[in-house]
Write a sequence for this structure.
């Protein structure tokens, strides 16, 4: 039977497709084999490759890949996948993985907890490996000198738990989400609800271990002070692979106090927030306040028939963390911020580890053991952006903002208090520069559950429109941004001949005047730019 032209054409396309797929898998297999052989040659002792290296053909590949993807936007069929995932179980395997990736000529993405908001620790548009650090998560707390060595694959929850095991009056100033990985969090700054008292996580790092581009393991002494400076806020993945940090613990009182107060526009939220801007960076250093600013729909009584009518408004939630008892907190609030109308019954006294659970939104009475859970419950698609406010926003402009939030409907904002210890640390002390002069930081937030590119674009446009609207009210020249609130909207690097110029666009926003020093460190330790990604620090051309 003679085949028609269309049938033969279809067969040819199928054959061509088969050959392309076969070629891809053959290439992938070749890279896998070369990598495994190289890894065996450089690791001591030589690992059983099947236990730590996953090719795309491995039945566990997808499970391992998705286990630490915290933003479902990047779990799609079109999301670029790594050729190989490497899951080292000791430090020598990390060194070997760096050497082998470099020698084979494949980029690596380094993932500690997977909370990079734009997925840059596990996706790329060029062929890449993932170096997944989740097996390296030991924590050694030493109460004799009040320090802890923490491997980069550990989570903040695990760190808090291990500190609590040893002491009820020690803590560590870092983020409120317990599943965030230590490696990325600390290398990018580390922000939490004790920053007005103690500053950032990076302000409490005493030592570190890093694998450089040559596969050499360095500590603070052998890496030198310039590189040690760079990996405390400049993002570790631009300079090497962070193995661990030695952190200095801080003192916490036996009793801390938290509160949660909600105000809508009908409840004078505008005036209260306006006043909050004038005191939040000057109030007692033991007090931190986080504000959730959200458009909501409320039911209101209408007329004698008591019919319920939907009305859109804005709700501001004041969440407080006070390092002390409620009686002293009430004294501070009545003196400096009576406008909120905080009452004693709004306050909850607890120990520090219980406050960790409270801020992570666990129910009252939840076991502290939940902090050892490394999985995240969030299944929402998400996008985040950041800004810094240095001048109070007027009441008139706040009212304009409320209208914009109601018009957009979906994005919300989080205002985080500054001042206190943050005002005392020079901007050049670490690469993180956003210190004195900032009243509060803004996180823009939007979540959604609809799948597909159309929904992604819709929600991304909403948050971008809100960000654009805020331009007159935030820092400028440059407009500051926080590295750990990853945002590729502010610039990406194609890592070509214009790498420095492209890197300066986002680098100036993240690091302000510290960017040029970071570039010099990068040029000294990784001149060929092996450790690069879409927002890495570039070397000098």
């Amino acid at each position: 039977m003679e085949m028609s032209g269309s049938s033969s054409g279809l067969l040819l396309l199928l054959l061509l497709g088969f050959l392309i797929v076969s070629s891809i898998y053959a290439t992938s297999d070749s890279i896998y084999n070369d990598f495994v052989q190289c890894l065996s040659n450089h690791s001591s002792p030589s690992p059983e490759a099947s236990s730590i290296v996953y090719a795309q053909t491995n039945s566990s590949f997808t499970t391992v890949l998705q286990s630490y993807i915290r933003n479902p936007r990047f779990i799609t069929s079109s999301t670029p996948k790594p050729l190989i995932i490497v899951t080292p179980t000791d430090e020598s395997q990390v060194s070997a993985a760096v050497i082998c990736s470099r020698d084979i000529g494949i980029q690596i993405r380094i993932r500690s907890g997977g909370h990079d908001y734009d997925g840059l620790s596990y996706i790329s548009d060029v062929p890449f490996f993932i170096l997944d650090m989740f097996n390296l998560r030991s924590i050694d707390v030493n109460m004799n000198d009040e320090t802890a060595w923490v491997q980069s694959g550990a989570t903040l929850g695990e760190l808090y738990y291990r500190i609590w095991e040893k002491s009820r009056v020690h803590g560590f100033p870092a983020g409120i989400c317990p599943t965030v990985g230590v490696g990325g969090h600390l290398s990018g700054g580390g922000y939490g609800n004790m920053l007005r008292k103690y500053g950032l996580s990076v302000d409490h790092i005493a030592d570190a271990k890093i694998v450089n581009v040559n596969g050499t393991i360095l500590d603070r002494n052998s890496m030198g002070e310039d590189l040690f400076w760079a990996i405390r806020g400049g993002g570790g993945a631009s300079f090497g692979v962070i193995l661990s940090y030695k952190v200095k613990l801080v003192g916490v009182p036996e009793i801390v106090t938290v509160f949660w107060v909600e105000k809508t526009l009908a409840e004078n939220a505008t005036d209260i927030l306006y006043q909050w801007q004038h005191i939040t960076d000057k109030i007692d250093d033991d007090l931190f306040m986080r504000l959730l600013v959200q458009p909501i729909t409320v039911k209101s009584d209408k007329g004698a028939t008591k019919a319920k009518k939907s009305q859109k408004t804005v709700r501001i939630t004041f969440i407080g963390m006070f390092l002390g008892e409620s009686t002293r907190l009430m004294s501070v609030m009545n003196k400096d911020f009576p406008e909120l109308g905080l009452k004693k019954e709004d306050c909850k006294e607890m120990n520090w580890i219980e406050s960790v659970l409270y801020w992570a939104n666990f129910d009252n009475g939840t076991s502290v053991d939940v902090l050892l859970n490394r999985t995240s419950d969030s299944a929402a698609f998400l996008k985040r952006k950041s800004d810094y406010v240095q001048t109070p926003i007027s009441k008139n402009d706040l009212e304009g903002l409320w209208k914009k939030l109601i018009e957009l409907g979906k994005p919300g904002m989080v205002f985080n208090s500054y001042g206190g210890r943050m005002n005392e640390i020079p901007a050049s002390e670490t690469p993180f520069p956003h210190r004195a002069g900032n009243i509060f930081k803004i996180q823009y937030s939007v979540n959604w559950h609809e799948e597909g590119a159309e929904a992604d674009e819709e929600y991304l446009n909403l948050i971008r429109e809100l960000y654009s609207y805020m331009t007159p009210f935030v820092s400028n020249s440059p407009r500051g941004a926080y590295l750990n609130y990853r945002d590729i909207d502010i610039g990406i690097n194609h890592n070509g001949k214009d790498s420095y110029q492209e890197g300066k666009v986002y680098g100036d926003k993240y690091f302000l005047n510290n960017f040029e020093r970071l570039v010099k460190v990068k040029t000294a330790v990784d001149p060929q730019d092996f450790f690069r990604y879409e927002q890495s620090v570039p070397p000098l051309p």
Remarks:
- The two ends are 65 Å apart (CA to CA).
